[in-house]
Design goal:
Structural class: alpha/beta
Number of domains: 2
Number of strands: 12
CATH architecture of the largest domain: 3-Layer(aba) Sandwich
Number of helices: 22
CATH topology of the largest domain: Rossmann fold
């Protein structure tokens, strides 16, 4: 074995495994930090900047002293052991971060620049030691592997390629296998185990005569592993990055955690999906990366139901419906109360579909309806590849400030793509948040929408519903009255304070003419220039968001 695997191959193998562990950490740490700091473009950039800065500093600092290190293999082993032990201890740090974030928010949120800088300092401080050690492996390995000056370039290139190959495999394994299979905490533990394995393997192969060192490494790793707690899933899944203002103090935050039940929590390809239950009334909430995306509360139910009822009340004879985003299945339940022949629902995350069972009593077990066809796919990819056309398309993704995953479902190109999949008399409904955005952001959304539809109106559900069609929508009062005679529909409508057709029509707030006047002059949100992905997080953090519905009423009044 020793003859085949000489010391240069051993160090390359160790370096490759080290690279794999580093990228597993990066993916798992980023996903963990997103539960606290959020998924905005600023938060993601901050995390990546802090990680890369640590690598650069480590390579620079240790590189300056690499020539003075007498026992390079021992140094490499100790660095790997340090990364592994600190990797395990990071779980303690992540559990403490929600409380630190809450204090920083209440002190600095009025200034986006100050808050952003402190976010960077938190990320940098959390990741500084392990990333410096990771960065320091490169000059150590280069010194061990590159022995001949005339082959220096080739040897360093070989070492770097081994590390990069490991990084590629590590990032792929973390995102597509480890996190979905064993969760965030255990993925971090797995990466730490790789580091300890590399340390002991290289230590043993190079026959470093310091048994006390290897015994200490094993003992420290064992102690840190045995004492490390599980993730504080309740604290990490309350979406502090969006809802910190809801908690007046750390004590208030702890009280909410204490009175909350965690019914479901799984880490998947696209994020952490959880279902929480609150209070004596058993209010349930579907959360994605901690942020509420559906709930049984009196604040969310009007939007979730009216997204289905408004277009289906207004369409003459809907036969096919596409629902983008399953959520808790409430909108889908509303759709199923109509005599439509085909109901497609596109949901990208299988965990959301799995979590729907906690809301089935509230949505009428809608996924059991034989007309419902669940499509696990990205909504835009599905529309790109599909030739299907629908009478009604309803889009209720998460918020437009969520980087990548949802922001591209609020762009001009997406609205155009949806229009191409509408039948001639089709209606498109787009959910728009009435919270956490400025009036100027709202006008950007409106102007982006009206560019693609000949006729635009909007309605209020607490939030805003944009309706787009190719021709004006005629309201049939008789048909509306008949709908309210349906027991299921009337029960839903009564539950959100709408008891007749007049009360329903009172939710209409702006016609096409006024919508275009209001939108005039505003910018357009596009795939190439996603303005809202950058502007809304600032409004949301600094509290300059406005009462959008009141602004609209003032405008039309």
């Amino acid at each position: 074995m020793i003859k085949i695997l000489n010391y240069r191959k051993i160090i390359l193998l160790g370096f490759a495994l080290s690279g794999a562990a580093a990228l597993i950490y990066e993916v798992a740490w980023t996903r963990s930090l997103q539960l606290v700091l959020g998924t905005t473009v600023y938060a993601v950039s901050t995390m990546l900047t802090a990680f890369m800065a640590g690598l650069a500093i480590g390579a620079w600092v240790i590189g300056r002293y690499a020539d003075r290190i007498k026992n390079l293999p021992l140094a490499f082993c100790l660095i790997e052991a340090g990364i592994g032990i600190y990797g395990v201890l990071m779980i303690f740090i992540f559990n403490a971060l929600p409380y630190l974030f809450l204090n920083i928010y209440h002190t600095f949120h009025v200034s986006f620049s100050a808050f952003g800088f402190l976010q960077f300092l938190v990320c940098f401080g959390v990741m500084l030691i392990p990333t410096m050690l990771m960065g320091g492996t490169f000059p150590i390995v280069s010194k061990i592997y590159a022995k001949e000056m005339e082959k220096l370039g080739r040897d360093i290139g070989t070492a770097y390629s081994a590390d990069t190959l490991g990084a590629v495999l590590g990032s792929f394994a973390a995102g597509f296998a480890l996190i979905p299979l064993i969760g965030l905490r255990n993925t971090i533990m797995f990466a730490a185990l790789i580091n300890i394995f590399v340390s002991i393997f290289v230590f043993t192969f190079f026959r470093i005569k310091r048994k006390l060192v290897i015994a200490s490494i094993v003992l420290l790793f064992a102690l840190s592993t045995l004492t490390v707690p599980g993730y504080d899933e309740k604290a990490l899944n309350l979406g502090l990055y969006q809802r910190a203002s809801s908690f007046e103090s750390e004590e208030d935050f702890r009280n909410v955690i204490e009175n909350m039940k965690l019914l479901y929590c799984e880490d998947g390809l696209y994020g952490t999906v959880s279902v929480t239950e609150h209070g004596s009334d058993g209010l349930r909430c579907l959360r994605i990366n901690g942020k509420p995306d559906a709930s049984t509360s009196i604040y969310d139910m009007p939007t979730q139901l009216l997204l289905g009822y408004v277009p289906l009340f207004l369409h003459d004879q809907p036969e096919s419906v596409l629902n983008i985003g399953l959520g808790g299945g409430f909108t889908l339940g509303a759709i199923s109360n109509f005599e439509v022949k085909k109901i497609d629902v596109v949901e990208i995350d299988e965990l959301v579909i799995e979590a729907e069972k906690y809301f089935s009593d509230y949505n009428g077990n809608v996924l059991e309806d034989e007309r419902v066809n669940v499509i696990v796919a990205d909504a835009r990819n599905y529309l790109f590849l599909s030739d299907e056309k629908y009478d009604v398309i309803i889009s209720e993704p998460s918020d437009p400030w969520i980087s990548g995953a949802c922001s591209n479902l609020f762009t001009k190109e997406f609205f155009e793509l949806v229009r191409e999949h509408l039948n001639e008399d089709g209606i498109f409904v787009q959910w728009i948040p009435a919270y956490g955005i400025s009036f100027s952001d709202f006008r950007i959304l409106l102007n982006t929408f009206v560019q693609e539809y000949n006729y635009t109106t909007f309605w209020t559900s607490g939030d805003i519903l944009f309706l787009g069609s190719e021709s004006p929508i005629e309201v049939d009062d008789t048909r509306l009255d008949n709908f309210f005679s349906n027991v299921e529909i009337f029960r839903d409508m009564e539950g959100i304070g709408i008891e007749n057709a007049d009360a329903f029509l009172s939710r209409f707030i702006m016609n096409d003419y006024n919508a275009r006047r209001l939108a005039q002059g505003a910018s357009i949100n596009t795939d190439d220039k996603p303005i809202l992905e950058f502007s809304i997080p600032i409004s949301m953090l600094t509290g300059v968001s406005e009462d959008i519905i009141q602004k609209i009423v003032q405008y039309t009044g």
